[in-house]
């Protein structure tokens, strides 16, 4: 049995039946059918596609292994696969799902996977007669628009974490944050992979260059522009992370050079008394200093004087500078202490699938 919705000018009615009944209800005058599955593993997906004549793309799931966002057309039928995205702030992870739409402009089959579910909101809109009058293109537009709207909150949270990490890198603390930077780069790349394959399609929507009637809805132009802005925001995040990574690796190189200088300076200071004591440790009889009454204190004084002079010289040249406790230029310009660690001190965060875009 297949659960589906028959939409007419008078309203939307939930029905259930086999493939033959679904095909008959979808073919009724002034009506169209919407079949919605909340899992790719749900029973009846292939039966529904076959009943509605939407099986030209092959057996479902189509390209099931790591599906990428895509738009394909075959003889008037369209498959639109978009990635749903949500961001888990507590672990700074980007998670993705899919929403796949099969349509020929007269019937619609949607298959969803993941936390984000735009379907209930769109079903509520079926109560509006003007929305129902838009037919399948209106529903496809509403679903696509809802998915793209969900990107904003994830992009905002991702950008906040990137900004926090940037402040930590330039806080003046000598902490190796390469792993954190690489982790956020990987998550940003996963987000980009969920969005970028549809950018060309978004440009076509914005410029109204699509040749499928189902994308003729006037709102698709705005959705295309929105998707392009999200992609630009992610590119900004990736560019910032790449710059921060390069700067941080330069910092680590500087720290290593400073450590080498300090080690060399202290080694030079330590070698002076070692040389003096080594010479006097030879105990030759013809060394007159060995028989002086002031010979021993004079040798100790010489060691102290040489060490003090070397220490002052190295310190003046900056070789003994403690760079790890200096206040960074970043924090001085902002008048505040070093930013606390994100993961350790922040309270438990929630999944935020909506919010304003992150371009700043």
Word description of this protein:
A hairpin with a 2-residue loop joins strand 4 (70-74) and strand 5 (77-88). Helices cover 50% and strands 15% of the residues. Helix 5 (135-169) runs parallel beside helix 8. A seven-stranded mixed beta sheet has the order 2-1-3-7-6-5-4, with helices on both faces. It has helices at 19-26, 45-51, 119-125, 129-133, 135-169, 178-195, 199-206, 220-280, 295-316, 329-334, 342-345, and strands at 2-8, 11-17, 31-37, 70-74, 77-88, 93-103, 108-113. The protein starts with a strand and ends in a 15-residue tail after the last helix. It is α+β, with helices and mostly antiparallel strands and 360 residues long. The chain has eleven helices and seven strands. The chain is rod-shaped and about 125 Å long.
Number of helices: 11
- Portion of residues in beta strands equals 15-25%
Listing every helix as H and every strand as E from the N terminus to the C terminus, the arrangement reads: EEHEHEEEEHHHHHHHHH
Helix content: 40-55%
Strand order of the largest sheet: 2-1-3-7-6-5-4
Query: What class do helices, strands and sheet pairing give?
Result: alpha+beta
Instruction: Give the overall shape.
Output: rod-shaped
- What integer is the average pLDDT? 81
Taking all Cα atoms into account, the compactness measure Rg is 34 Å
Q: What does the oligomeric state look like here?
A: single chain
Given as residue ranges, the uncertain stretches (5+ residues, pLDDT < 50) are: 323-360
Strand count, sense and barrel status of the largest sheet are: 7 strands, mixed
Calculate the terminal CA-CA distance, rounded to whole Å. Answer: 50 Å
The total of beta strands comes to 7
């Amino acid at each position: 049995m297949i659960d589906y919705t028959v939409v007419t000018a008078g309203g939307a009615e939930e029905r259930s039946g086999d493939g033959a009944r679904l095909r008959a209800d979808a073919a009724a005058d002034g009506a169209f059918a919407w079949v919605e599955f909340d899992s790719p593993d749900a029973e009846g997906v292939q039966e529904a596609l076959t009943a509605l004549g939407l099986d030209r793309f092959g057996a479902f799931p189509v390209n099931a292994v790591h599906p990428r966002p895509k738009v394909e057309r075959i003889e008037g039928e369209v498959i639109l696969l978009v990635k749903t995205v949500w961001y888990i702030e507590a672990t700074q992870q980007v998670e993705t799902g899919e929403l796949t739409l099969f349509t020929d402009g007269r019937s619609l089959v949607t298959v969803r996977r993941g936390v984000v579910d735009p379907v209930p909101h769109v079903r509520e809109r079926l109560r509006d007669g003007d929305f129902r009058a838009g037919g399948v293109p209106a529903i496809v537009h509403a679903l696509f628009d809802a998915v793209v709207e969900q990107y904003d909150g994830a992009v905002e949270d991702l950008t906040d974490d990137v900004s926090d990490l940037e402040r930590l890198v330039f806080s003046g603390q000598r902490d190796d944050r390469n792993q954190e930077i690489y982790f956020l780069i990987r998550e940003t790349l996963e987000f980009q992979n969920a969005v970028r394959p549809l950018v060309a399609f978004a440009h076509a929507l914005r410029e109204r260059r699509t040749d499928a009637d189902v994308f003729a809805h006037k709102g698709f132009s705005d959705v295309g522009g929105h998707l392009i802005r999200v992609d630009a925001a992610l590119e900004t995040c990736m560019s910032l992370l790449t710059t921060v990574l390069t700067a941080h690796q330069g910092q680590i190189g500087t720290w290593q050079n400073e450590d080498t200088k300090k080690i060399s300076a202290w080694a030079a200071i330590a070698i002076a008394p070692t040389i003096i004591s080594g010479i006097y440790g030879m105990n030759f009889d013809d060394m007159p200093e060995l028989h002086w009454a002031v010979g021993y204190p004079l040798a100790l004084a010489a060691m102290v004087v040489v060490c003090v002079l070397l220490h002052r010289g190295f310190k003046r040249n900056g070789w003994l500078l403690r760079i790890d406790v200096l206040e960074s230029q970043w924090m001085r310009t902002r008048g505040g202490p070093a930013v606390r660690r994100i993961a350790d001190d922040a309270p438990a965060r929630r999944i935020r699938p909506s919010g304003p875009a992150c371009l700043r």
